[in-house]
Amino acid sequence: MHYDFVIVGAGFAGSVLAERLASQSDKTVLVIDKRPHIGGNAYDCPNEDGILIHLYGPHIFHTNSPDVFAYLSQFTEWRQYEHRVLASVDGQLLPIPINLDTVNKLYGYNFTSEQLADYFKTVGESIDTIRTSEDVVLSQVGRDLYEKFFRGYTRKQWGVDPSELDKMVTARIPTRTNQDDRYFTDEFQYMPLHGYTKMFEKMVNHPNIHLKLGTDFKAIKDDLSFDELIYTGPVDEYFDFCYGKLPYRSLRFDHQTLDVSDFQPVSVVNYPNDQEYTRITEYKKLTGQEHPKTSLTYEYPQAEGDPYYPIPRPENAALYQRYKDLAEQQQGVHFVGRLGTYRYYNMDQVVAQALTLYKKLIGADSFHDVIKS
Ligand code: FAD
Ligand code: UDP
């Protein structure tokens, strides 16, 4: 059959565009994913014990965009959840982002917020131009806290020293002088009440949307008939790596279920230093599910494997720019999403990016107009 649009990838980018094009613009859409399921990296499913887990690591929804929140709320109810993370440092579990309690507990101080602000001024290193992920943290909290909380974690996670990574990586994590121990301060922080996959099912459940899962686009592209293509896979792969490979960081997920109901005090505990894994997630504490057993995921960073993280470094940005220039020359092909645009984007940013592309495709005037049902 002939389709108005073929969309490669059934993650947030692909599903949002399929949903909008089908339900609002009456377009016929074929969504292809090489994985056997929808949802991309946000896919969740019950494991063999019936505990809802995230197959590709913990996904916590947070946004400051009322539009993104309103858009997704058409497809799910929400569970209120504010994310809190502890880091295992020097034998203690301490709040990360670093806050007043982190410093007082780590060093046995009794600082007030004002005293901590003064302390950070004393230990923070003076750096003229903040360029790297090392600069960000050293300038804010000084060398000791940098080494205990950031250097080891970042080297494990990215396979390079923080001094070789763009500042935006560690700048994701703020420094606080109060006792706020939330990981995010966004206005909207929720988990989809019945999980991400149920939300995606509602999005793509439309007579104009056909799904072809477990299929690589490359294998079938010559047999497809369509007007326009939306591509959310790795942009370098689309162009057969003609300028060389864009570096991505991968992860190995070790999923485990224990015969105890409770494992750790919060949903995520980070291990900056002493372990090969970066963090352990306990899903029941994200989802609120009650169960006599508990399921965990250990994340082991690695170079090879599925591309999970674009690596923000100047030379990679330069290489991506070449692919972007090539992408812009293609007629009727649109690149979007974390892999399609080589951006370290959170879910809400990908939804916004996809809605923006939809707005462009239909020539709408306002962003607000494109989120309505
Ligand atoms: P993806 O979800 O990667 O979807 C792309 C899809 O394209 C994939 O399913 C892939 O199989 C398919 N594909 C690729 N190539 C082909 C091909 N040739 N043929 C067919 N199909 C193809 N964000 C948050 O906001 N909060 C979080 O807590 C959070 N935690 C994260 C934790 C981890 C471990 C990771 C890796 C990411 C996390 N993210 C989080 C980011 C979030 O996963 C992404 O922003 C979002 O899923 C990106 O959606 P996407 O559609 O761009 O890409
Ligand atoms: N980070 C760190 N120590 C921590 C938490 C984060 O060094 O305890 C750094 C690390 O470089 C990490 C980055 O901050 O990759 C961003 O952390 P975030 O939790 O946002 O990563 P993600 O959830 O995207 O993997």
- The CATH C-level class name of the largest domain: Alpha Beta
CATH topology of the largest domain: Rossmann fold
Fraction of residues in H or I helices: 25-40%
Uncertain residue segments: none
Strand-residue proportion: 15-25%
Structurally, how many domains make up the residues? 3
* Average pLDDT number: 97
Shape: globular
Supply the helix-strand structural class.
Answer: alpha/beta
Ligand inventory = flavin-adenine dinucleotide, uridine-5'-diphosphate
Q: Please, what is the oligomeric state?
A: single chain
**Helical run tally:** 12
Cofactor: FAD
InterPro entries: UDP-GALP_mutase, UDP-GalPyranose_mutase_C
Pfam families: GLF, NAD_binding_8
Protein name: UDP-galactopyranose mutase
Describe the protein's architecture and organization.
With 373 residues, the protein is of the alpha/beta class. The protein has 3 domains: 2-38 and 204-246 and 311-371, 3-Layer(aba) Sandwich (Rossmann fold); 45-84 and 182-192 and 248-308, no CATH class; 104-171, no CATH class. It has 12 helices and 17 strands. It has helices at 12-25, 66-72, 100-107, 113-123, 133-158, 196-204, 217-220, 235-238, 284-287, 314-329, 337-340, 347-362, and strands at residues 2-8, 29-33, 44-46, 52-54, 61-63, 78-80, 85-89, 92-96, 188-192, 209-213, 225-231, 248-258, 268-270, 279-282, 294-302, 309-310, 333-335. The strands form 4 sheets. The protein has a 7-stranded mixed beta sheet. Strand 7 and strand 8 form a beta hairpin. The chain starts with a strand and ends in an 11-residue tail after the last helix. The mean pLDDT is 97. Keywords: FAD, Flavoprotein, Isomerase. Residues 148-344 form the UDP-galactopyranose mutase C-terminal domain.
